[in-house]
Write a structure and sequence with these properties.
Belongs to the NAPRTase family. It holds the Pfam family NAPRTase_C. By secondary structure, this protein is α/β, with parallel strands linked by helices. The protein contains 13 helices and 19 strands.
Length: 450
C-alpha cells in the first residue's frame, strides 16, 4: 500500500483513435505505454470508459440509420438506464451517435445537448375538471393587450373543432382539456402534448386542436402531439389528416405541418417497420432499447499486453477470436479514388506508412490470411497522441461534443452503404502488412514449440 501511494502516470503515454471514429474488430482503439504495473492498473478504468460509451454510441448510430435522415430522434432512456451514471453516459453518447436531443435535463446542462420532450400522462390525468385550474388567463404574444380568459377561449374553439371533425363534444374529456390549457398557459411557445391518455381521436386530438387554435388566435404557434400507444403509423396518418382539415377550415397553414412524435418501447426493429409503412411521424422518442442495448447488452473490448521492453507478446488461445496480434502497432485507413474507405491496415510501429498510389501487399484478417495487393488513393493514420508522459500535449485538445458528433456522422457517412446495412452488411476489410504477418507467424511458431 505504501508503494501504491507513490504510483503516478508521469511515464504513461496514451494514443487513441479520435472519439467518434468508426472502428472495426481486432483494431487497437487505444495504445497505452508506460511502466508495466502502472498500465496494468489502468485496465479496468479504461475498459469501463470505452466499452459502454462505444456500445451505446454504436447502438444510437444504428437507430439513426434505421430511422432515416428525415426523422428527429430524442433519447428518453433515463428511467430505464442502469443508474444515474449510465443514464448520463447514454444521453451523451446517444447524441454523439446521431440522436438530435435528450429528455435528460442534467445531460443538457452538463454537456450542452439540446433538451426536448413532452408532458407525462400523469400530468394530464392529475386534473379532472376545468374548475381545478388556478390560473386560466394568458397574455397575447405581442404583450400589448390585456390578459384573455384562455379557458373560455379554448372552450369556444373546442365547439368549432368538434363541428369540423364531426366529433361529439360530450365525448371529449374535460379534465384532459383543462390539463392542456394549464400547460399552454405555462408554455405557450412549447405546446406539445401527449394525446393518448384517454381516446386519441375522440378526445386527445380534438382537445389539442382546440388549444392550438386558441393559442394561434393569441399569436402563438403550437408544436405538436405525442403518441405513446396504439398503431403509431396508422394513427399518425389519421392525425395528419385532421391537422390538414383544421388548417384548411380555419385558414392556418402552419396547422398542417404540426409535429407528430411517437414513443412506446421503440426498438431498431420497430423503427424499420415504421419506415416501411405509410406514416406521418416527425419525431421518435427512444428509451429502453437504446440505453440498455437490448440486442447486445455488452461490448467485448479487451486490454492486452502486446510488447514488453521491445519484445513482442502474444496470447495464444484455443479460441481463435481471443488470440492477440503481437507488437506495438499503428492503424491506417486506406481510401479509394471516390474518397471511400475500403481497408484498414495495421502496421508495426516502426514500419514506414503505406503511401498513396503505391502498391502494398496485405494479409487480410481471418483464418486463412488471404493475401492481396492494393493501391490506396489516400492514406490516413488513425492514431493520435492524447496523453504524453503524464501530460496532455500543448498542441492537443479535447473537442466539444458537437465537434465529436459531427466527426462521428462524417465517419459513418464516408462508409459505403453496403457496410451499413443493418441486416446483412458486407464485412469491412481489416488487414496487416507483410512484416506484421511475419512477426505474428514467428511468435506463434515459437509459442507452440515451447
Amino acid at each position: 500500500m505504501d508503494f501504491l501511494r507513490t504510483v503516478n502516470a508521469s511515464e504513461v503515454t496514451v494514443s487513441s483513435v479520435p472519439e467518434g471514429s468508426v472502428v472495426f474488430a481486432k483494431e487497437p482503439l487505444m495504445k497505452v505505454r508506460g511502466p508495466l504495473l502502472v498500465v496494468q492498473l489502468l485496465e479496468t478504468t479504461l475498459l469501463c470508459l470505452v466499452n459502454y460509451a462505444s456500445l451505446v454510441g454504436t447502438n444510437a448510430a444504428r437507430f439513426r440509420l434505421a430511422a432515416g435522415s428525415d426523422k428527429k430522434l430524442i433519447e428518453m432512456g433515463l428511467r430505464r438506464a442502469q443508474g444515474c451514471d449510465g443514464g448520463l453516459s447514454a444521453s451523451k453518447y446517444s447524441y454523439m451517435g446521431g440522436f438530435d436531443s435528450t429528455s435528460n435535463v442534467l445531460a443538457g446542462k452538463l454537456f450542452g445537448i439540446p433538451v426536448a420532450g413532452s408532458v407525462a400522462h400523469s400530468y394530464v390525468s392529475s386534473i379532472s375538471s376545468p374548475d381545478e385550474l388556478k390560473c386560466r388567463t394568458l397574455k397575447p404574444a405581442n404583450k400589448q393587450e390585456g390578459e384573455v380568459d384562455f379557458l373560455l377561449l379554448t372552450q369556444s374553439c373546442l365547439r368549432k373543432v368538434c363541428q369540423v371533425l364531426k366529433v361529439p363534444q360530450a365525448e371529449t374529456n374535460l379534465g384532459e382539456l383543462a390539463a392542456f390549457v394549464s400547460y399552454a398557459i405555462a408554455f405557450p411557445w412549447n405546446f406539445l402534448m401527449v394525446v393518448d391518455t384517454y381516446s386519441v381521436l375522440m378526445s386527445g386530438v380534438p382537445n389539442f386542436c382546440a388549444v392550438a387554435l386558441a393559442l394561434h388566435q393569441l399569436g402563438y404557434q403550437a408544436v405538436g402531439v405525442r403518441l405513446d400507444s396504439g398503431n403509431l403509423a396508422r394513427l399518425s396518418v389519421q392525425i395528419r389528416k385532421i391537422f390538414q382539415v383544421c388548417s384548411k377550415q380555419f385558414e392556418i397553414p402552419e396547422f398542417a405541418k404540426l409535429s407528430i412524435a411517437v414513443s412506446n418501447s421503440i426498438s431498431e426493429h420497430s423503427l424499420k417497420l415504421l419506415a416501411q409503412e405509410e406514416n406521418e411521424v416527425n419525431v421518435v422518442g427512444v428509451g429502453t432499447h437504446l440505453v440498455t442495448c437490448t440486442r447486445q447488452p455488452s461490448l467485448g473490448c479487451v486490454y492486452k499486453l502486446v510488447q514488453v521492453n521491445d519484445v513482442p507478446c502474444f496470447k495464444l488461445s484455443e479460441d481463435e477470436e481471443k488470440a492477440t496480434i503481437p507488437g506495438s502497432k499503428t492503424v491506417y485507413r486506406l481510401n479509394d479514388g471516390n474518397g471511400r474507405p475500403f481497408l484498414d491496415l495495421m502496421t508495426l510501429q516502426d514500419e514506414p506508412p503505406p503511401e498513396s498510389r503505391k502498391e502494398v501487399k496485405i494479409y487480410k484478417l481471418g483464418p486463412e490470411f488471404e493475401t492481396d495487393v492494393v493501391i490506396p488513393e489516400q492514406v490516413t493514420c488513425l492514431h493520435r497522441i492524447y496523453f504524453k508522459n503524464g501530460q496532455v500535449p500543448s498542441d492537443q485538445f479535447l473537442p466539444s461534443i458537437n465537434v465529436t458528433r459531427s466527426h462521428a456522422q462524417r465517419s459513418l457517412h464516408s462508409l459505403g452503404q453496403e457496410h451499413k446495412d443493418l441486416e446483412n452488411p458486407r464485412p469491412y476489410t481489416v488487414a496487416m502488412t507483410e512484416k506484421l504477418h511475419s512477426l505474428l507467424t514467428n511468435v506463434k511458431r515459437t509459442s507452440l514449440l515451447q
